[in-house]
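Changelog note: in this version the structure field was regenerated for every chain. One regenerated record is shown below for reference.
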Amino acid sequence: MSGDLNVSALAINVTIPEGLRWTDTRRGEAFTLTTLNVRLLPDGRLAAKAYGRPVAGGRGAYVSFPVPERPELAALIAEAATRAGALWAAHHGFD
């Protein structure tokens, strides 16, 4: 059966630690980015987008932002993916 499986989505959500958060603007509204959505691409590379809340408060729109090229964010993404892989590999089955 495993040869016939087509797994199309492998994604995790990661909370960005306070010290690594940043602010970005979309449509004139400032957002503090607090969460990363990390995806495993079919070729094994990782892709990530950031999400957050409006600085002014409220729920705001669910808008994605690019992740800046910062070594500490790249390290966070890699560490989160490695941790997620270990958790997946150690699963206890579906019941």
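Spot check on this record: Strands lie at 11-15, 22-26, 29-40, 46-54, 65-66. The chain has a mean pLDDT of 92.
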